[in-house]
C-alpha cells in the first residue's frame, strides 16, 4: 500500500523537541484521507536505579504537557490522534513494541542533524528503529539553522 | 525480586531465562560486546554491555536496590571482585558467585560472598553418587556454611528400610526435609513415614554430622 493513498495507522514517537509539531502535522495529513489514527507516544526512560513502575512526577508532567499540546494540534487539523505515555528502560524497544501492538503501517521519527567527530550521526534511537521496526519508517530531519556569516 | 546477573555465558544465559520466566526483574551485565549483542537479541534492553566489576556500571544497573547479585563468569577473580563491590559498595543483601576452582571456595566465603557454588564440586558430588551407588551428596551450602542440604539414597539391605522416620537414629543437628520415592515422587514427611529401598532422603545437616546421618540411613554399608 502506498502512502500516497493515505494511511490508517501511524505511530509518532515524540520527546518534546521542536520537531514534534512537524512530524505530528505530517502524520495527520497522511491519515486524514482515510480518517485513520495517529498514535503519539511519549516514552519516559526510567533509570535502572528505580523500579520500572516508579513514580516519576516531573517527567510524567512534562510528557502530559507535550501530549496535551500535540492533541490540540491534531484537533486543529481534524485528525484522530491518541496520546500515550510509556515508562521503559530504553525508548527503542518500547517504540518497536508499540508499533507491533498497534499494527502500525508507518512510524515517523524526527532527528536533528548531529555530528560526531566531524561525521554525521543519527545517534542510537533512529538506527535502532530503522533496524527493528516491523513497519515502514520515515525519518524527518529538521531545517538547518541559517549559517553564521564568516567575519571579515 | 530484582536480580543482577554478571556474565551471559552458558550459565548466565540459562539463569537469566529461568529468572525471567519466574517473574523476576533481571539485568544482565556482559563485558563481551558480541555476546552482549547476541543476548540483547533475545532479552532486549535488560542486557548491559559493560564490565560488571565496575562500581559505576553496577550503580547504573541499580545495585543499590537489587536483592541478589549472581556472578557467573568463567573467571573466579572477576566473580569475587563483582561480589565484593556489590556487597561492600552497594550493600547488596545476597551475593552469589560461581567458582571454578574448588580451592577458592573458602576464600570467597571469608571475603563475604554469601554463597560460593563450585561447579567442579557439584559435578564431583554427582559423580561420586553415580559411581559409588550412594554417598552423601552435597546439594546446597546454606548461609554461613553452618549447615548443608544433602541427599542420601537408602540402599537395599539398609536397616532403615521399613522403619518409621521417628525411630531412626539420626544425629540431633540433622533435619530430614523430604523423601523422594524410587518413582521420583516426593512423599510427605511425617514421623510415621516408613523408608523404602531406593528412597532419596533430603536433609539439612551440619558437616560434622554427615557421617552419622549417612550411617543411620544406610547402615554404613
Write the layout of secondary structure elements.
The complex is a heterodimer of chains A (152) and B (221).
Chain A: E1 9-14, H1 20-32, E2 37-45, H2 57-76, E3 80-88, H3 91-102, E4 106-111, E5 114-116, E6 119-121, H4 125-132, E7 136-141
Chain B: E1 2-6, H1 10-21, E2 25-30, H2 33-43, E3 47-49, H3 55-60, E4 68-71, H4 76-90, E5 94-99, H5 105-110, E6 115-118, H6 119-132, E7 136-141, E8 148-153, E9 175-180, E10 186-187, E11 200-205, H7 210-218
Parallel strand pairs in B: 1-2, 1-4, 2-3, 4-5, 5-6
Antiparallel strand pairs in B: 7-8, 8-11, 9-10, 9-11
Walk me through what this model shows.
The complex is a heterodimer of chains A (152) and B (221). By secondary structure, chain A is of the alpha/beta class. Chain A has a single domain (3-141), classed as Rossmann fold (3-Layer(aba) Sandwich), CATH 3.40.50.620. In chain A, 35% of the residues lie in helices and 28% in strands. Chain A contains four helices and seven strands, in the order βαβαβαβββαβ. Chain A has helices at residues 20-32, 57-76, 91-102, 125-132, and strands at 9-14, 37-45, 80-88, 106-111, 114-116, 119-121, 136-141. In chain A, strands 3-2-1-4-7 form a five-stranded parallel β-sheet, with helices on both faces. A two-stranded antiparallel sheet of chain A has the order 5-6. In chain A, β1 (9-14), α1 (20-32) and β2 form a beta-alpha-beta unit. In chain A, α3 packs parallel to α4 (125-132). With 221 residues, chain B is of the alpha/beta class. Helices cover 33% and strands 24% of the residues of chain B. Chain B has helices spanning 10-21, 33-43, 55-60, 76-90, 105-110, 119-132, 210-218; strands at 2-6, 25-30, 47-49, 68-71, 94-99, 115-118, 136-141, 148-153, 175-180, 186-187, 200-205. Chain B has a six-stranded parallel β-sheet, sandwiched between helices. In chain B, β2, α2 and β3 (47-49) form a beta-alpha-beta unit. Chain B is elongated, with a radius of gyration of 20 Å. The relative contact order of chain B is 0.10. The model of chain B has no long low-confidence stretch (mean pLDDT 88). Chain A binds chain B through residues 47-52, 88-90, 92-93, and chain B through 2, 25, 27, 44-46, 59-62, 64-65.
